[in-house]
Each structure stands twice: as C-alpha cells, then as structure tokens.
TrEMBL record:
Pfam families in the cross-refs: SSL_N, Str_synth
Transmembrane stretches, start-end: 12-31
Keywords: Glycoprotein, Membrane, Transmembrane, Transmembrane helix, Vacuole
Location of the Strictosidine synthase conserved region domain: 197-284
Source organism of this protein record: Rehmannia glutinosa
Annotated localization: Vacuole
Family: Belongs to the strictosidine synthase family.
Protein name per its UniProtKB record: Strictosidine synthase conserved region domain-containing protein
Length: 411
C-alpha cells in the first residue's frame, strides 16, 4: 500500500509539475514571509460577517439616477483638512470641525476665517502636527497618536460645552471658550478605548459613544473591514459618577450614533455590516436592538434633522465579489496576502468608491437618496448635517466641506 502511495505521488510530481509549483507558490504567498502584502505584519484573522444578502439590498434600493449630490458646492477648499464632523453652537456660530491635524477649528466669518478653537492633546504644536494639505495623507498617520484625531463633535445645548470623540484620546470635553480639552473616558470595563469614533448626548447628561475596535486603531481601520472582526462597543459615560459603562459589545465597526428626538431610542451604524441599528432606551423593547435599514454601502456618521429624521453618510457601494468574500473568510486570507498594493486589489474586485447620502425616518423608511457617482463633490463622505437651509457635508479624506441647499428645487 505504501509503495502504491509513493507511485501516485511520484506520478503527480513528474506528470504535473506545474500543479506542484502552483501549490508551492500559493503556500509561499499565504505565508507572506517578507510581509509584502497589504496585511503583512498583522495578525490577520478574517471571519464571516452578518450582512443582508447583496441582491436583496441592491434590488430594493431607490437609486438616485441624477447624481444630485454632485450639485453641491465646495467650500473652504484647502483651508480645512479632513473635517469629519461638523457642529454649530447654541449661538449659531460655526461650523466647528475636527481636523486631521488634531485641532477643532471654528469658522469666524469671511474677515477672520478659521480659528483654532480647541486641542485634544497637550503634545500638539504647529511644528509637529500642522501638515496643512498633507494632513489627510499618510504623512499624518505617524503623528495622529501624538496630535490626536477628533472625529465626533457634539455641543451640550444646556451649558455650551463641546464633547469630542477622539480616535486616540477617547471621550473629552472643552468649555464654550475652547482651549485644551479635558479627558473624560479612556477605558471601559477594564479595556482601553482604542478607537473612539462618534457620540451623542442624552438629555439626562449621559454621553453615548462608539469604540470601533479593540484590535485596530484608526490608522489601521481598513483591517477591521477586511477581517470583519466584531470587537467594537457602544459605551455610555455618566458625568455624575465619572464612570463609563459598556452598553453593547461584539459590534462590527460601530461608527455614527444618534439619539431620537424623544430619546426613546438611539441609532448607530455598523460600517462592516452595511446597516443601521436601533437600540431601545424606553418601552417594552428597552435594552434590545434591531436592524432599522440595510444599506448598499458603508455608513459613517448619522445626524438628526429638526423634524426628527436622520441623514446617513454612506460610502458606496457593495459588490458581488465582496459577497463571495464575506461568506468565505479563507478566500480573504489568501487574496489580501497577495503581494499587490491594496488599491489594485480593490480595483480587481470591482470596488469604485463614490459617495451617497440618505434620509431615513425612525422606522428605517427611506425618504430621500442623493449620490455623487462621479466624485464631483467628494469621493468619501463622513457626515451630513442639515442646518440653515443647507446640507453641510464633512469628509475625513478631503480638504474641504461641501454644501447643498435643501430641500432641492424640483425635489
């Protein structure tokens, strides 16, 4: 029997040498000994995602065939760098924006321009952190942990304090006059807050905020998506006791968070799973969650309107190949270990990112959809805030803000 096995083995080796070479080459690639792949040097452990079927979502989505988001105007081009979140204070001043260089800035009008309103790190200095237009490039990444990267911004309308979710410094607060922000929460349940992302303020003073991952920080956020890992958390900070509590854990890239107008529930986005989730704060379902909407792309921040509806920023779109990857983690493990730059790997599976924003009511019904397929306004969108008769659109990746009058004419 052993002799027969050896004969078969030798037959394969001599008759099909290309098969053997292919197997050996693939084994070498998967091992990635020289760390040449996009995931080289990382403990890359892909898992299966919990995501709605691709065809079901795409077939039912009300697409914007006019690319109306592309009608927006570019504001403050090359004056403001990676403004993810936008806010206005109780006196109508603003916008305020958290920048890629670690500052929170405030627009003071055409004469005065932008001023630095607050900092999240005592390490900040212009010489170290101010990369101007390069702040949204890789040049800034090595500095982020020192300079900070403010993401979510919210004003407490009662006292004028500005609360900040910083990707490296956790939850912070700064007074109405600005300055150096005070840290409030850097740990929860004995674990560090590795990637604070967005927040909202309950009328009782509690701060709900997201911690996107316990494995990867903001610089490495793309690995969260590639792995499909679900170590993110929804947290709550209690000001009277100065304690931070875990509300939900096991979340796949929890990102934007927004309380409803009556504070009976909050919505949060799960970027990896392309969906909006509802967490009930009152009523018979209190303490439970449910899916509100499945999306064609990857959601970021979510913001409420005066009417109580919700704008969601979406980086679009899912692909059929992604569907295969989602259900076959082993395939991701092989594919992303190929020694090819990520931008080419993405193109090879049909990924062509563009921006979309969508308006929902609290039950997940879609009220409006606007997209920008040609990237006229921006290719990555982070937040949509409706204020002063306009949509104010922030982006973590570009050096401008976009605005669009809303409602649109002939809407």
């Amino acid at each position: 029997m052993e002799k027969r096995i050896l004969q078969i083995r030798d037959g394969i080796l001599f008759q099909h040498p290309y098969v053997v070479v292919f197997v050996l080459a693939m084994s070498f690639i998967v091992m990635d000994p020289f760390e040449l792949s996009p995931v080289g040097g990382h403990d890359f452990r892909p898992v299966k995602n919990e995501i709605a079927p691709y065809q079901q979502v795409m077939d039912s989505w009300p697409w914007d065939n006019r690319s109306r988001l592309g009608l927006g105007s570019l504001e403050f081009k090359d004056e403001i760098f990676g403004p993810e979140s936008l806010e206005f204070d109780s006196w109508g001043r603003g916008p305020y924006a958290g920048l890629a260089d670690g500052r929170i800035v405030r627009w003071m009008g055409n004469d005065a321009g932008w001023e630095t309103f607050a900092l999240v790190s005592c390490n900040w200095s212009e010489k170290l952190c101010a990369q101007t237009k390069d702040s949204t490039t890789k040049k800034q990444w090595k500095l982020e942990s020192k300079c900070g990267r403010p993401l979510g911004l919210r004003f407490d309308r009662k006292n004028g304090n500005l609360y900040i979710a910083d990707a490296y410094y956790g939850l912070l607060v700064v007074g109405p006059e600005g300055g150096l922000a005070t840290p409030l929460a850097t740990h929860a349940d004995g674990k560090p807050i590795l990637f604070a992302n967005d927040l909202d303020i309950h009328h009782n003073g509690s701060i709900f905020f997201t911690d996107t991952s316990n494995r990867y920080n903001r610089v490495d956020h793309f690995f969260i998506l590639l792995e499909g890992e679900a170590t993110g958390r929804l947290l709550r900070y209690d000001p009277p006791t100065k304690t931070t509590h875990v509300v939900l854990n096991g979340l796949a890239f929890p990102n934007g968070v927004q309380l409803s107008k009556d504070q009976s529930f909050l919505l949060y986005t799960e970027t990896t799973n392309c969906r909006i989730m509802k967490y009930f704060l009152k009523g018979p379902k209190s303490g439970t969650t449910e899916t509100v909407a499945n999306l064609p792309g990857f959601p970021d921040n979510i913001r409420i309107t005066e009417k109580g509806d919700f704008w969601v920023a979406i980086d679009c779109c899912r692909t059929t190949t992604q569907e295969v990857f989602i259900h076959n983690p082993w395939l991701r493990s092989v594919y992303f270990r190929l020694p090819i730059p990520m931008r080419y790997l993405a193109r090879m599976v049909g990924m062509r990112m563009y921006t979309m924003i969508s308006l929902f009511n609290g039950d997940g019904e879609i009220l409006d959809v606007l997209d920008d397929k040609k990237g006229v306004v921006m290719k990555l969108v982070s937040e949509v805030k409706e204020a002063n008769g306009k949509l104010w659109i922030g982006t973590v990746a570009h050096n401008h803000i976009a605005t669009l009058p809303y409602p649109l004419e002939n809407h």
